[in-house]
Amino acid sequence: MKKIISVIIVICLTIFSCGKKSETDKAPEKSGSNQTDATKTIAKNAYIYAYPVVQMYGIIYAYNINEKDPGYKGPFNKIANVPRVFTPQDKAIVTPNSDTPYSFLTMDLRAEPLVISVPKIEKDRYYSIMLLDLYTYIYDVIGSRSTGNDEGKFLIAGPGWKGDVPSGIKKVIRCETSFSMACFRTQLFNPADLKNVIKIQDQYGVEPLSSYLKTPPPPASPVINWPAFDMKVADREGMFSYLNFILQYCPVVPSEVKLRSDFEKIGVIPGKPFDEGSKLMPEISAGYTEAMAVMKDTIEKDLKNKVSSGEFFGSRTYLGDNYLNRAIGAKLGIGGLIKEEAEYFPYQTDSQGKPINTATDKYEVTFKSGGLPPVNAFWSFTMYDGKTQLLIDNPINRYIVNSPMLPELKFNKDSSLTIYIQKDTPDPDKKSNWLPAPDGNAYVVLRCYWPKESILNGTWKAPDIVKVN
Questions:
Q1: CA torsion 106→344→145→130, rounded to 10°?
Q2: pLDDT tens digits, 434-447
Q3: Where does the chain hold its CATH 2.60.120.1600 domain(s)?
Q4: Alpha helix ranges (H) inside 224-372
């Protein structure tokens, strides 16, 4: 199976996996080189812990705080619909899909819960609302698979809420951080279907609980002085400055009491400025270098190990204390769904294990007769630039080949289906099945939405991408 997102099982078992003593359990020794090594270890673990949290803040800053950002979506607690599929001009999130127009909602849950309203959606159209906390844990999913396509109202409550469940609420969903992001996906069948998707998007709703109950609102939460987000700062020791700011909105959970206590020894303290002039900075910098090396090696080595994408996206209960996997998920692209909702098969190498270089070579991927991905919703192949992991410009503005396109695709005589992956226009008899590629390394993702059990248990095997002479 071509599951080539990355994680090294040995590293996970020895560093962060459940049932084993992780590096985050180690406190600094009392003197000398042991003290230095222990500080470095804490810093390494803190960086791995911090990476997804800080990346999430970068998205929120672009989407909801910095009005000058090209990706700005609007204020908190208001749904922002994107009435089109993503294109190469959308750069805030890597590896976006181009099958489901998005809607975004960033929730400030400090003062009171919010109520999300969903309209009745026709049974054959897939939709989902993925709920992410500030850690990037997916703490729940509303949608076709989990709650059905009937209309409903869902209450999203922050960590401090203790009220009664109001009547008319289909489900109460609790978030352990004070801010949260909801990512709506609404399936688009074809370009002519866009007007129907927009109609559904316009019916998604959100309101404070007090508005839903028609009661006076609670006192407003304090105004926040948001620190400007700079990726160059976030990619180095400045990551901890952002982490300290964000953690004040992330109450400590019981399983992380000792972990957070260890982090305080290097200056990671919620709501406090991080001391970049600390005498511990040499060890902290060394810890950063080690952390980034672990993540890089993990990604590269598991291109061979082919670990499922489902290992990197999920709830705190599912991911446990595997902070490395959580960080890898953020590195690969915040917003990946849990495996029950969508299984991802990313390709960075061909059937020979070599990088997919569409600057010089042509490739094919073939589904055997009867071997199309077994899904309850739909599947799609999406093309990205191998370096940026963003969608690419191409002469026919096609970024995907997916199952809704099957009536327009050309099957082989034996009923198999071949998709042609190349940068130049193919021969006329292949053009209907062409997935345009970049002039360089390519990164391709097969997405299977609402996968059937044969995908989840590994019985169904994703085909290889093969270089064509």
A1: -10
A2: 999 999 999 999 99
A3: 341-468
A4: 231-234, 239-247, 257-264, 281-305, 316-319, 323-333
**Which residues, 6+ apart, have CB-to-CB distance to 77 below 8 Å?**
105, 106, 107, 108, 114, 206, 208
pLDDT tens profile 205-243: 999 999 999 999 999 999 999 999 999 888 887 899 999
Which CATH fold topology does 341-468 show?
Answer: Jelly Rolls (2.60.120)
Cβ(54)–Cβ(234) below 8 Å: yes
Closest CA to 323 of 97, 83, 84, 48: 48
**C-alpha 271 chain-centroid distance:** 26
Specify the CATH number of the domain 80-92+100-211.
Answer: 2.60.40.1610
Specify the domain boundaries for CATH 2.60.40.1610 within the chain.
80-92+100-211
Any idea how long the chain is?
469
The chain-wide mean pLDDT, for the chain, equals 89
> Using an 8 Å Cβ cutoff, are 348 and 356 in contact?
yes
What gap in Å lies between CA 49 and CA 327, rounded to an integer?
Answer: 7
